[in-house]
Write a structure and sequence with these properties.
This protein has 273 residues and is an all-alpha fold. It folds into two domains: 188 residues, Up-down Bundle (Growth Hormone, Chain: A), CATH 1.20.1250; 61 residues. The protein is globular and about 55 Å long. The N terminus is likely disordered. Keywords: Membrane, Transmembrane, Transmembrane helix, Transport. This is Major facilitator superfamily (MFS) profile domain-containing protein. It holds the Pfam family MFS_1. It is a multi-pass membrane protein.
Amino acid sequence: MTEVKTQHVPWSTLTQEGHLSRLLLLCFGVWLYAADATLVATVMPVAVEDIGGIPFLSWVYTLYQLGSVVTGAIAGLMVIRIGIAKAQIVAGIFYVLGCALSGYAPDMPTMIFGRLLQGMGGGGLVSLAFIGASTMFPKKLWVRIIAVISGFWGVSSLCGPLIGGYFVAGGNWRGAFWAFAAQGLVAVLMAPPLLSRKFQAQKEQTQAMPFSRLALLGVAVLAICQAGVVTTTGISSVLCVTGVVLLLFFFKQDAKSENRIFPRGILNPRTVS
């Protein structure tokens, strides 16, 4: 029997060997997603007065979450195929385009599509942060890294509505989205110098992306999200049950696949990793 010894790792270790700069970039991606997710709480009430479309307001939140779930689910496969730096660039570009589109939006459909792109980009950035935590840093630092990322997430979620309120109070709700678009560009531009050398793509990986399973996951998430905003109890219940059934079917199909999106045994409470 091997004895597992715990090693105390001081926080100062994060500042060594370039760890801090890479960690801050990963946390910056978490900031972009988490702050943007709550930003709309104070921005959208004013935005709908300007562009209209209040009957479709729930889709602003629903498609953001849908995009983040679907893109976040395949972030690991993207890293294997193209490397974490290029994956960060792709996710960042989606995020920037989404923010710019929402900032420009003359109507609600444009706003909704922009939020979908933001969710896709932001979800990818968050997933890449956790992937990077386990691939770019020594194992002894993992606990510290996750603690920092979690702290950033909490602070970012709190700041989102405050930032939105600041721009709304200044009479420029569109500026909130443009400000995050500018920040997204920073995440794109800083990815090559900080991430390229730490995790390269696996060139021999040629498995196709699981688009059919991603579509199934998307429909399941969409049904569950809509169940929370539909006012009719019967329809809401049907959507919720349908979404859960589709989600369980997705996990079953994914477990049988060679290029799994999620780890095998993800629904088993006894599974550790």
